Amino acid sequence: MFNRVTSFCRKVLNRDSKTRAIEDLKLEVIPRKAHGISRKGISENALKVLYRLHKAGFEAYLVGGGVRDLLLGREPKDFDIATDATPDEVKKLFRNCRLIGRRFRLAHILFGRDVIEVATFRGHHGKGEKDKQTARSEDGMLLRDNVYGTIDEDAQRRDFTVNGLYYNIADFSIRDYAGGLDDLNNRVIRLIGDPETRYREDPVRMLRAVRFAVKLDMTINSATAAPIVELAPLLQDIPAARMFEESLKLLQSGQGFATYQMLREYNLFQQLFPAVAAHFTEAQSSQTEQMLEQVLRSTDKRVVNEQRINPAFLFAAMLWYPLVTRAEEMAFESGLSYYDAFMVAASDIVDEQVKTIAIPRRFTAMIREVWQLQMRMTRRTGARAFKTLDEKKFRAAFDLLEMRGAVEGEETEALCAWWRDFQRADQSGRQKMVRAINKAHNTRKPKSRRRKGPPRRRKPQSNSDA
């Protein structure tokens, strides 16, 4: 199906090294009979928005990942729409519309939980009145971008060629301005325009390049990849709240481990998780690195099996060994008990991490609970084991203990096996297991001997007692 469009694609020489220069973009229109996109593959709500905009006299296009995924035979996760209608004009057409964003003004059309995002065509940044709608940082990052233009200008503002494809609801054709169909056929991720300039405008594009390459099983064009390692620190200037959303897209996509490996190769993961990156080794064999592989592969498996995923558990596992190292150092240097040092270190690690990725409080609270339960699971005497088992986050804590056992072996594996058996046992069996622990604990505990001292002097009786 997809190969039928090949004859309409622009052939580009040296496709492994060249970028798509903005000034070289040329429109190719692929008629309906020459491509495989059918309206049956587009969500009913997206079609409603497209048709209403078209009927009101506006241009309306399905754009970006929706078009790309349909051409690749994938089921799109989102359907985004581009139009020449301004956000205020879109709002007048749809009572279920909400305008969002300051940096990029967007319209969200709400159909229950389904959200169709509508963006007005972006224009070029010029001088004069338009400059009131745009702003850049000293490094070239776009801080505000509400300059509107034509579809031709909008195509030049798109990030990657494979996302620069427009499906026209007016005649069901595809408009390709940047050779995106050609790059889809050749499985190449390529930036439109000068890579360094585009990355400085929005450093998150470096993360998107990696995410698309892994997700779509494509190769990043060499010119697109070249500046990433050097420009990776620009990610530190991105708001931490935005980085939280991006981190979930990267690590909970179903290809989290492969994404992590590529992020690390391009010096990007190091910007997102500096406390974790401090434990990286050349052999990639540290306990932190082993845990990363454990938890990311497990997350990938759960995504494939459509099982529930909690970001808090992912972060708790990733940050576990940086926490342990910090706690040990703190206990040694300050003289605090290990438990007290552990609790202080837990707060420090979380506080440092939220500076780069703004993990919401509901997740940081769970992270701390899971960590604290690692300590409690080592204490099983008396009623402690039963109380620990009743904790709401016990299952998550046990999953982390299992991963630790795979990394640490020996004592941790034995502790994990005990808790596994304890969960499976009935009440009588659990009591028997605890009694065995109590007996072993009492056997190991040395009996305290009372030191003999001078005989106590009897307190003299008062006159009233005589």
UniProtKB/TrEMBL annotation:
Q: Give start and end of each Polymerase A arginine-rich C-terminal domain.
A: 335-452
Q: Which UniProt keywords apply?
A: ATP-binding, mRNA processing, Nucleotide-binding, Nucleotidyltransferase, RNA-binding, Transcription, Transferase
Q: Where is the tRNA nucleotidyltransferase/poly(A) polymerase RNA and SrmB- binding domain?
A: 217-278
Q: Which stretches of sequence are listed as region Disordered?
A: 430-466
Instruction: Give its E.C. classification number.
Output: 2.7.7.19
Reaction equations catalysed: RNA(n) + ATP = RNA(n)-3'-adenine ribonucleotide + diphosphate
Q: Which GO MF terms are attached to this record?
A: nucleotidyltransferase activity
The EC class name is: transferase
Q: Identify the domain of life.
A: Bacteria
What is annotated as the active site?
Answer: 78, 80, 159
Stretches assigned to the Poly A polymerase head domain: 60-190
Q: Please give the SUPFAM superfamilies that the UniProt record associates with this protein.
A: Nucleotidyltransferase, Poly A polymerase C-terminal region-like
List the biased-composition ranges (Basic residues). 441-460
Q: Which family does it belong to?
A: Belongs to the tRNA nucleotidyltransferase/poly(A) polymerase family.
Return the HAMAP family for the record.
PolyA_pol
What function does the entry list?
Answer: Adds poly(A) tail to the 3' end of many RNAs, which usually targets these RNAs for decay. Plays a significant role in the global control of gene expression, through influencing the rate of transcript degradation, and in the general RNA quality control.
Per its record, how is this protein called by name? Poly(A) polymerase I
What organism is the protein native to?
Answer: Salinivibrio siamensis
